[in-house]
Design brief:
By secondary structure, the chain is mainly alpha-helical. The chain is built from nine helices and no strands. α3 (about 40-60) packs antiparallel against α7 (about 135-150) and α6 (about 115-130) runs parallel beside α8 (about 160-180).
Length: about 200
């Protein structure tokens, strides 16, 4: 059932307001850094995926297949998250509450729950753990920073980013565990195609 313009302010609107007000009184260098991360930080996850794939090719074809699956899992998580947004239809907090935000408030119809950024970041972090624990650990820290930044700049409630992290993490975990059940068959199929160079250094 589709809800009409769900208002999330009753859940943690007060906490959201506290964070946004703190951002208004924070040092300008901090706000600038957080805003930049909120806007451009997803590029870091893309870079980590490339690094993971490049290293995995040197380990073996199966490792390379796992690494190549990461961006596909992230795209799938984004798609499911977008469907959830359309189902819940929660207005952005900056549209509902009287606050001054660091980032311009998205237009109406650009729904808030769950956070796309948090979902993408969490999915990438969990999936990268199956490629490299070190890269995964870096991505986890980056994902948490991304989630916090989206509240700090004023475009999401805390529950939006928490839900985004949970959705992204669970979807990525399920997908990567499923992938691990048939690594050899997938590797053989891909090796037989023109994609073979992607699996070997």
């Amino acid at each position: 059932m589709i809800l009409v313009a769900f208002q999330g302010s009753s859940i943690d609107g007060e906490e959201y307001t506290d964070v946004v007000n703190s951002a208004q009184h924070a040092p300008s260098w901090l706000d600038t850094t957080v805003s930049a991360w909120s806007t451009y930080g997803l590029a870091v996850f893309a870079m980590l995926m490339v690094v993971g794939w490049w290293r995995a090719r040197r380990v073996g074809a199966e490792s390379a297949v796992t690494a190549l699956a990461v961006p596909l899992v992230v795209v799938a998580a984004y798609g499911i998250d977008s469907l959830l947004k359309l189902a819940v239809r929660e207005n952005r907090p900056c549209q509902t509450l009287r606050v001054v935000t660091l980032e311009a408030c998205p237009v109406r119809g650009d729904w808030s729950f769950p956070s796309n950024h948090a979902t993408i970041a969490a999915a990438a972090a969990v999936a990268l753990f199956f490629v490299s624990r070190r890269l995964g650990a870096v991505a986890v820290v980056a994902a948490l920073a991304m989630a916090v930044s989206r509240v700090w700049v004023g475009v999401h409630y805390p529950h939006d980013v928490v839900a985004g992290v949970v959705v992204g993490a669970l979807l990525a975990l399920g997908a990567m565990v499923l992938l691990k059940r048939w690594p050899e068959s997938l590797t053989n199929r891909i090796t037989a195609t023109r994609l073979r160079p992607l699996l070997m250094s």
